[in-house]
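hey m, so remember when u said the tokens were messed up on ur end? i reran from scratch. heres the input so u can diff it against urs
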Amino acid sequence: MKRALLILLTFIFLLSMAACGGYNEIMREHLGNEENYYPIDATFCSYTETDDRIYLYVTVEDKSAFDPFESNKEKLILELVGDNCEALDKFLEKEEIREGDKITVKCSTWIYMDSTFYYVAEIKIQGETYLTFDDGLKNIRNYMDGNKSLI
């Protein structure tokens, strides 16, 4: 009996750990809805890259569209995932964007649980469009569909 209980608890623990990775239905519905993305004028500060993500660190004068928690932060972190990273890769590698440059993005402004999901679906830098909203949103949807959580 004790062994069966231990196996059951272990299974529940492993299931809960596996369910944390990926996008659940709430996240996919919200981030897949085009009405949940807002145009934001920002000032580029810096960026970092990981495997399939680029994080843009920006300052924004009007933070009213973002979660109230963000109003105290000096810089916001905007995230590009999957194929959306390709839209900026070459531009960033050539260092054609510098600290202080003005950019316009269309991004989500939602925080879900303990993570930020300020996903960028459109990028315009110095008047040139590097990622259209239609392509950006499609890429976000594809990325989430390929990384679903178990629950």
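this time it looks ok to me. DSSP finds four helices and eight strands in the chain. if urs says something different then somethings off w ur setup not the seq
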